[in-house]
């Protein structure tokens, strides 16, 4: 684990280890961790986005995301830190718990 402060970008091996405990999340070469969620229909996808929005607002950390009919793609990166931080992993875990 890196010994940098809690808001510092994490090293790739640490991110990959953390993602091992999350289903379907990947780390891109560009940096964000990402996952695509697929639902039965648009209304379920939109309901999921609403629940994620409430989590993100409470955490003060917001995803980059897109919606196309029944799928929602979420990418998490801490832009002002220039990489993935613990905040991104925490939000990914919270999203998984929905």
Structure explained in plain terms:
With 98 residues, this protein is α+β, with helices and mostly antiparallel strands. A 4-stranded antiparallel sheet has the order 1-2-4-3, with helices on one face. It has a single domain, classed as 2-Layer Sandwich (Gyrase A, domain 2). Helix content is 38%, strand content 19%. Keywords: Lyase.
Structure keywords:
Gyrase A, domain 2; 3 helices; alpha+beta; 98 residues; globular; four-stranded antiparallel sheet; single chain
A few lines on this structure:
With 98 residues, this protein is α+β, with helices and mostly antiparallel strands. The chain has helices at 12-19, 42-59, 86-96, and strands at residues 26-27, 33-38, 64-68, 71-76. Strand 1 (26-27) and strand 2 (33-38) form a beta hairpin.
> Main β-sheet, in a few words?
4 strands, antiparallel
- Form type: globular
CATH architecture: 2-Layer Sandwich
Could you state the order of secondary-structure elements as H and E?
A: HEEHEEH
From the alpha carbons, calculate the radius of gyration and give it in angstroms.
13 Å
Query: Multimeric state of these chains?
Result: single chain
Top-tier CATH class:
Alpha Beta
Q: Biggest sheet: strands side by side, in what order?
A: 1-2-4-3
The CATH superfamily label reads Transcriptional coactivator/pterin dehydratase
The number of helices is 3
In terms of per-residue confidence, which ranges show pLDDT below 50 for 5 or more consecutive residues? none
Enzyme class: lyase
GO molecular function: 4-alpha-hydroxytetrahydrobiopterin dehydratase activity
Catalytic activity: (4aS,6R)-4a-hydroxy-L-erythro-5,6,7,8-tetrahydrobiopterin = (6R)-L-erythro-6,7-dihydrobiopterin + H2O
InterPro entries: PCD_sf (IPR036428), Pterin_deHydtase (IPR001533)
């Amino acid at each position: 684990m890196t010994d940098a402060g809690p808001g510092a970008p994490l090293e790739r091996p640490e991110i990959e280890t953390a993602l091992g405990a999350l289903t379907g999340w990947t780390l891109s070469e560009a940096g964000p961790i990402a996952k695509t969620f697929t639902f039965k229909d648009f209304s379920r996808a939109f309901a999921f986005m609403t629940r994620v929005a409430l989590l993100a607002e409470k955490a003060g950390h917001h995803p980059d995301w897109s919606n196309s009919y029944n799928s929602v793609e979420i990418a998490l990166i801490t832009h002002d830190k220039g990489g993935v931080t613990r905040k991104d992993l925490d939000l990914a875990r919270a999203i998984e718990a929905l």
